[in-house]
Every structure is written in C-alpha cells, then in structure tokens.
Design brief:
Pfam families: HTH_3, MLTR_LBD. This protein is α+β, with helices and mostly antiparallel strands. It is built from twelve helices and five strands.
C-alpha cells in the first residue's frame, strides 16, 4: 500500500529513533527482517506499514514499549501494550516476585524504582541505610537519585561524593537522551545543580562508575561502607508499568562492609 504520511508522522518518528540509536536503514532492515527499500519508503511516507511491521521495527530499535504504543497511535493503530496500576490484582505475581527479590538481597540495601527514579518499594536494608535523612526527602513520591545527592539526604555521608554524584548525573542524563522524557531531563538538570563541580582529569581517575563509599549512620561511627551496584529489569514484560520497573541493589565490595550492613539491619 502506497500513501503519503503527514509531516511529523510515523516516518519522522521512526527516523528519529533510528538516528538516536545510530542505526542505518540497512542495519535496521536486517534486524527487522525486511528490506532497506521498505524502511526508506516508510520513513519518507511512501509506504504505510502494518502493525506487526511497526512492532518489529520498534523492537529492533529497542524502543521502550510505552513509546511503541505512541508509534502505533501515530500510524493509526490502537496501542497493544497495557499500562496497569501496580496494585492491579493481575500483577499480584509481579508484586510477590519483587518482594522476594528485595528480601532476598538482605542485609544488602535494594530498591525498586520506576522510569523516573521514583521509589516503588524498598527493603529493610535500604531503610537502615537512609536512617536520619530529612523527612521531606522520604515523603512520596521519593526520588531515589535526589535522596542520594541532596545535602539533607545521603550526600554528606558519601566519602567520594564528587565521583559518585557524576556517576548518578551521567546515568540519568544518558537515559533521558536515549529515551527522551521531559521529567528525566528535568531530573538530570536538578541533579546537576546538586552535584559538586565535576572532577578534572588526574592520573588516578578511574571514571565515575566507581563504588559508593558511604559513612555509617552513627554520629560517632567512622566506619565506611564500600558498595557496588547492580541494575535489574524485567526483560520480557509486555505491560508498560512492569517493563519500566528497575531494581537496584547495593552490594558489599568487601567483608567489613558485609558485616556492617548486617549490623545496620539488626539495629
């Protein structure tokens, strides 16, 4: 079927995603099992693809499923990916799985956040780690990145704040570029304002993806936790809410940290 798409329609949106991912028309065609000619015709508005082709192209470009729905709407199709509330009874098994994963990480702190870094759930280890922060930072919706970098949050206890802050800022900024979102862009700007000046080059610089070094919570306790982080998500979710969940765990990088985490949780 040959037709003309409106300016700013599916063709433009697809080309924008392809450019953002730095994928050529030929590479996209190969990934999606079609031809470069067909991809070119779709982007120029000379061809109107079927729903399954749009989904294949979006999947090949790793477009988040929320935005896949938008691509379908732009092409005149109904969205196919539901967006459920997390307390929906149908997501009961998901909630159970999340709680088991969070509890399974104890005594290590672990959180589940949404696409904007807002707290969905946390385990006792995270609550122990954040004891003593300003109450307003724990009022819903709790922004975990802001909680980490705010001067009334964990920032005063972070020994390597300059490096760790830019690890957080760069990660949020990269996500806002990879998957454009106004709230993420605003969060990146807010975190940049909270972060110390970016460290300059030095012979000892290892980059900003470094372990978090955090002082213990007690006022007379000079012990330092050394934590590395892991990120996990549901790789096969077809519900927008579930697909956007991220689990971040703070794991001990040495034996003294493991012992101290266990002590903090017991308290």
């Amino acid at each position: 079927m040959i037709s003309e798409s409106p300016v700013g329609g599916l063709g433009t949106a697809l080309r924008d995603w392809r450019t953002r991912r730095r994928v050529s028309q030929l590479e996209l065609a190969t990934r999606a099992g079609t031809t470069q000619r067909h991809v070119s015709f779709i982007e120029s508005g000379r061809s109107s693809p079927g729903r399954s082709m749009i989904i294949r192209l979006a999947e090949s470009l790793e477009v988040p499923i929320r935005e896949r729905n938008e691509l379908l709407l732009t092409a005149g199709y109904a969205p196919v990916y539901p967006r459920s509330s997390l307390d929906d009874p149908r997501l009961g098994p998901i909630r159970t799985a999340l709680r088991q994963i969070l509890d399974g990480h104890l005594p290590c702190p672990a959180v589940v956040v949404d696409r904007h870094g807002d707290l969905v759930s946390a385990n006792a280890g995270f609550h122990a780690l954040t004891a003593g922060v300003a109450p307003h930072l724990l009022a819903p919706p709790v922004s975990v990145p802001r909680l980490l970098l705010h001067p009334e949050g964990l920032a005063p206890r972070i020994v390597n704040l300059r490096e760790w802050a830019w690890h957080i800022v760069d990660r949020v900024r990269a996500e806002s570029v990879r998957n454009p979102d106004e709230r993420l862009a605003r969060l990146a700007a807010d975190l940049t304002a909270l972060a110390p000046r970016r460290p300059g080059d030095s012979p000892d610089h290892l980059g900003f993806a470094v372990p978090l070094r955090l002082r213990a919570t007690g006022p007379d306790d000079d012990r330092v936790l050394t934590l590395i982080t892991t990120l996990t998500h549901f790789g096969t979710a077809t519900d927008v809410t579930v697909a956007e969940l991220r689990l971040e765990a703070f794991l001990p990088a040495d034996e003294p940290t493991a012992a101290l985490l266990a002590e903090l949780v017991r308290r």
